[in-house]
Structures are given as structure tokens and as C-alpha cells.
Amino acid sequence: MLDRAAFEKENQDTRKQLAALEKDVKQLRDWVSSNERALNGMNESLRRITEDGITKARAGLSVREGDLQRLRGVIAKNDKILSRIGDIERRRKDIATLEEEQERLIVLLERNRTELRQFEQEYEEMTRPAAPPAALAPCEVVLPNNLRIPLDPGKGTYMVGWYDAAAGASPDIDLHPVGGSAQGVSRQHAIIRLAEGQWTVTDLGSTNGTFLNDAPMTPNSTVALRDRTRIRLGNVIIFFRYITQTTRL
Q1: Residue 248 has pLDDT above 50, yes or no
Q2: Cβ–Cβ contacts within 10 Å for residue 119, how many?
Q3: Which listed site, 25, 83, 119, 206, has its alpha carbon 20 to 30 Å from 152?
Q4: Could you report the per-residue pLDDT of 52-110, keeping only the tens digit for each?
Q5: What is the pLDDT of residue 131?
């Protein structure tokens, strides 16, 4: 424990003692010097008395000068101690400041490490090679006369209706051979399209509507097709299915 106050008080008291002792020593030196000068004019008896007094005074002066050195040593030592106490106090203050800064830097470091891990994960996700698209199962449309029309992903779009040379209607899936024109199928009734790896059907605002498993489609809407979906256009029914499906419809 640093007791600055105790050393400061000791130094203060010692300096007072030193000042009083220095005054006493000066007076004693002056007395010795004065009496030494007066020796030549004294008779023998007084001279011996004075010389004896001077001898005793010098002995006392020697003791006091030793005390002076001791007190000065105490003050010098305490000054060094107080100086070192000041160094310790300043260093402790510096360390406390650095520790506070260290805590702030540790928090900042952890925050940056967390952000770095997050950025690295995001980078890995951004640069990770895309998984190859899943192989698209071959699909087909089955007409009422059991005609199977494979759907080619490379083509991707199939118009469904019935052929009418006069009107210039030439659909990809022609329902005229199965009575399309008489069964309420529009010349351009619907489109079967591959979109983002999924076959869909879009009603083109047909006159008699499109139904999926007997559920009516909203005109001009698009719905994804599932295996064995029953598609009714007017009164003609066709099926969408995967070619690998071997179960009879």
C-alpha cells in the first residue's frame, strides 16, 4: 500500500528539525569562531577556560553536523520514495486507462471476428457452384384416342386447340381429330409451357374454360401440372403424366 501522506508528513517534520538544527549549528559555529579570535587577548586562566569551552562546543558541533547529515539523508530518501510513489501512481493510472481501452478493443475485435465469419459464409454461399439442375422427368400428354404426345423441354411451349386452316390456327396439340371443334375447344384454347423446371398450363381466355381435375381455372391464369393431372378443355379430356408412369389412366 502506498502511504504518500505518511512520507510527506515525515519529510515536513524532518525539514522543520533540519531548519532548527541548521540554525543551532550556525550559532554554535559563530560562537566558536568568535571565541577563537578572542583567545589572543585573554589571560592564561581565561584562555584555558575558553579553549575548554571551544573544545566542548566543537564536539557538540560535530554531533550536530552528524545529525544534519542524517536528517538530510532522511529527506533525500523520502524525496526518492515520494518520486517513486508518483511514478507508481502515474503508471497505475496509465494501466487502468489501457485496460479500459483493451476491454473496448476486445469487444471491437470480437464484433469484427463475428462480422468476418458472417462475410466469409456469405462469400462461400455466393461463390459456391450452383448445383446442377435436377433431371427433368420426361412427360407427355395423352389424348382421348390414346395418342401420346411427348413434351420436349427443348421446345418448352405447346399451344393446345384445334387446327383451322381458314382461321390460320395451327396448334401444337391438335384436338380436332378427337372432336375438339364440336366439343367446345377454342382454336387457341390453352398453352402448356415449361417454366423454371415445371410444366404449367395457362388458359388463354377460352370460351368454354379449362378445368384441372374438374376444378375450373380462372381465365388467363397459370397453374403447375402434376403427374396424372386431368385436363378438360371444353368437353375434351386429356391427361398430363410422366412417361415413366405405367399405371393405366
Answers
A1: no
A2: 10
A3: 206
A4: 888 888 888 898 899 899 999 999 999 998 999 999 999 999 999 999 999 999 999 99
A5: 58
Residue ranges of domains in the chain: 4-126, 139-242
Question: What's the half-sphere exposure (Cβ side, CA atoms, 13 Å) at 182?
Answer: 3
* Amino acid letter for position 230: R
What does the chain look like in DSSP terms, one character per residue?
---HHHHHHHHHHHHHHHHHHHHHHHHHHHHHHHHHHHGGGS-HHHHHHHHHHHHHHHHHHHHHHHHHHHHHHHHHHHHHHHHHHHHHHHHHHHHHHHHHHHHHHHHHHHHHHHHHHHHHHHHHHHHSPPPPPPPPPPEEEE-TT--EEEEPTTT-EEEEE--BTTTTB--SEE-GGGTTTTTT--TEEEEEEEETTEEEEEE---SS-EEETTEEPPTT-EEE--TTEEEEETTEEEEEEETT--S--
Which listed CATH number (3.40.640.10, 3.30.230.30, 3.40.710.10, 2.60.200.20) goes with 139-242? Answer: 2.60.200.20
As given in the structure block, the three cell numbers for residue 48 are 584555558
- pLDDT-derived band at 130 (thresholds 50, 70, 90) equals low
- If one compares 141 and 2, the residue with the highest pLDDT of the two is 141
How confident is the model at residue 43, as a pLDDT?
82
For residue 189, CA distances in Å to 11, 78, 211, 212 come to 112, 109, 12, 14
